[in-house]
Amino acid sequence: MSSEPEAPHPRRPTPSGAEPATTDELDRLWADPRGLRGQLTGVQNDKIGTRLLLTGFFFALLGGSFDSLAMRLQLAVPQNTLIGPELYNQLFTNHGSVTMFLVILPIFEGFAILLLPPLLGTREMPFPRLGALAYWTFLLGGLLYYSSTLFQLVPDAGWFAYTPLSGPEFSPGLAIDFWVLGLGVAEVGAIAAAVEIIIGVLKMRAPGMTLSRMPLFAWAVLVMAFMILFAFTTLIVGSLLLELDRGFGTQFFDPQHGGSSLLWQHLFWIFGHPEVYIQFIPAVGVMAMIVPVFVRHRPVGYTWFVASLVAVGFLSFALWAHHMFTVGLPPLVLSFFAAASMAISIPAGVQVFSWLATIWAGRPVWKTPFLFFVGFLIIFVIGGITGVMVASVPFDLQAHDSYFVVGHLHYVLIGGVVFPIFAGVYYWFPKFTGRMLDERLGKWNFWLLFVGVNVAFFPMHQVGLMGMPRRVYTYDEGLGWGIHNLISTIGVLIIAPGIAVFVWNVWRSYRRGEKAGNNPWGADSLEWALPSPPAQHGWSVLPIIRTRHPLWDQDDLHRGDGPVERFVHGISQWPLKWRAAVIVGTADARPREVFRVAGPSIWPLVTALGIVLIFLSELVKLRWGAMVGALIIVGGVIAWNWPKPPPMSEEDEDAFEREYGVPVNAHGSVVVARWGTGLVILFVGTAFAALLLSYFYLRLENPQWPPPGVGDPPMAFALLSAALLAASAGAVLFAERRIGQGDRRGLLGGLVAALILGVTGTSVQWFDLTRLGLAWRAHAYGSIFYTLAGFVIVVAAAAIIMLTMTIFWTTRGAYSARRHAPLANVERFWRAMVIVWIIGFGTLYLGPYLT
Fold this sequence. Notes:
Layout: H1 20-30, H2 35-41, H3 45-75, H4 85-120, H5 128-146, H6 175-203, H7 216-248, H8 261-295, H9 302-315, H10 331-343, H11 345-361, H12 368-390, H13 393-399, H14 403-433, H15 439-465, H16 482-512, H17 550-553, H18 562-573, E1 580-584, E2 591-596, H19 603-620, H20 624-640, H21 650-660, E3 664-665, H22 670-701, H23 716-740, H24 744-772, H25 780-811, H26 821-846
Parallel strand pairs: 2-3
Antiparallel strand pairs: 1-2
Region (Disordered): 1-22
Keywords: Cell membrane, Copper, Electron transport, Heme, Iron, Membrane, Metal-binding, Respiratory chain, Translocase, Transmembrane, Transmembrane helix, Transport
Domain Cytochrome oxidase subunit I profile: 29-546
């Protein structure tokens, strides 16, 4: 076997193609400000990605390491009194919550935001300010959650917060509120980063990088981001219902008043089980980049590998009740979820066999990243086998809530997720620091972790089968569990120095490690063509891609067909006064648009502070603060998107398009804005679907709907408001068509008519809701009625604010037949709002008549 990398084809130089003066000018243009101002306003992808990685690792040390060490020391021997039951409950709740919400996912989103621009051959992410918002909300949410320790109010109901244990009756204090509200802020950040990643992968790639040529890591984070959008949105809705029960006295989860404790489990596990695969899929993407490089062979079965990633994404949402086999679901339902739980092992197996075939065909190079891959493969396969075991209903009925499940979960998460994180750091550290991590320390790091993980978690399977339940803080002598728990504790004591070696290796190598060249591994993907570390703007001349392995196959990254080659060299020399990036076709990767990328701004931080103020105000029950937070968010978003004068005229844009055949939108991207609006609508639709699911679940649980003594709501006002809103959608569509014909007067008239109709229709419905007088605290019917209605009205209020700002900018002459993308996006959102309105209030007013 080879000891040093040897590329399948000799690597060839990849000239930058730009003059040094031009490169320096681009670097100054794209750099964030210096000092404190730059720290607060910076939006560069390398800064945001690195912050997410470091903050995630910081939370890992707090909640993933110290908590687990304390719990294992407590369980090392029977009848131990090191820590009491209350503290133990707090530790395992914190350990699970931090790991699932504040560590693994933010780290992988950090990898994505850091890597995608250089990996895909572009200069920046599509919404740099949205990436900054994602980081600030993640940081502030994590700090809000951890502030519970300052008040000795650490959550203690488990990371799953099952009702009624987490409800107001059994957890009346603020501890669970810290869990719901602090992690809720972080969940907003996860969704924001997901939107950034989706558009970045689909629309911002190098010319020629078609979908079939995309790196597997890009495919993996794309699937991850879509899963986040669906899963985390559902969890936010579930958390909203839980906090309404706790803080406002609603009855969503109280069976005595029409609620259902199982409703929380359904909403939570629609998030919770896909969450495991949300973490696993990007880990697979990391390994898919590492294996070909260190076995010197192209990946076997690229197309099947991509299909398996997509299949895992879909199937993960079909098995949420995998964790609910013991709650009393009908046998037919159990059979469906058991089959889905087993079926998901098939695409995972495709990935394993693809790696094995690639290794068989190549020549492994036993560097540290590849060692972590081998450790990952062994540990994850063991975790996958035990996962198939608990997918069997009869076996799960015996192993459920035992230490067998704890062992299975840690094999999957540590083998399937943590080892790839270490592998990714060792692999990409040279690119972004210019320094190599020490190989000798890396091997110590690997062997300590590999041995420690197996010693710590393998005995848990045996002690679980012997009957030891999970979430117990001690156990009696004579049960035969002591030796297994002692071995597990020794394993954790082996893991701890392994992590310490890693921290020391990173610190030492960053300061005085061996200097890395541009491509120390002989890798095949685009990021290794850039200097180490890359320049602020990344690519001076965009690469042109003709293969999946450009550094192994292409003589010159900047050579392509005539028009595309002329375009990439033209865009390298112009413009040099504003941040220009390129949009490509989703499938064919042909250049479609040049647009101006947003620069540094304080407003993402201000908006994040408004978000955390809403959650903090609910925590301390100063609800007027929530109104202040909402105003801060509205003001922050408006200021964030405040149009700047385009740095060039429409005539200059037309001239560039005539020369190169690619439109220029110096005022902002039409394509990116359209995709962003579409994903916002998808987010709203997912939240709306989760509320509808809650409504119909409660409807089926209650034979009398509404409850006795409550009449059916009259429909007259609802029909009137729906008609007014439908007419307003027609007025907005009319306005958009008028500006397309250059008719500014028709534009303004249509927008004003839509605003009047929309405000009138919303007011009519609001009046009707105030006169209904349903007892929203007495029964789940009133609770879900007003919650669903309130959601629809909030969506309408957001649309009204957007339309009002559009009218304001119309009066300022901001729109023309060429430049009216914001208007088109408002029309799309308004149309979606009207659909949500009709379905939402149609459900509320017609629901009682359904049998």
